[in-house]
Amino acid sequence: MKIKNKRGSTWIWILIILLLIVVGIGIYFLLSSGGGVIPQPPALPE
Fold it and tell me: Which of 14, 18, 31, 43 is the most exposed place for a label (fewest CB within 10 A)?
């Protein structure tokens, strides 16, 4: 996998990963709340 423009590709991957995380969290909240009011997220385990 050759990357000519490393900086540009890095930003693209960061945006893709952030988008996937946001979409995943959104789907998780929709499923967990049944499409109703979004509940507060549980505290993350340390």
Answer: 43
Alpha-carbon span 32 to 25, nearest angstrom: 10
Looking from the CA of 8 toward its CB, the CA atoms found within 13 Å total 3
Mean pLDDT by 10 residues, the chain (46 residues): 72 95 88 64 71
Query: What is d(CA 14, CA 7) in angstroms, rounded to the nearest whole number?
Result: 11
CA trace torsion 20, 25, 29, 35 (10° rounding): -20
Cα 33 to Cα 18: distance, rounded to the nearest angstrom: 22
Residue owning tokens 């490393």? 6
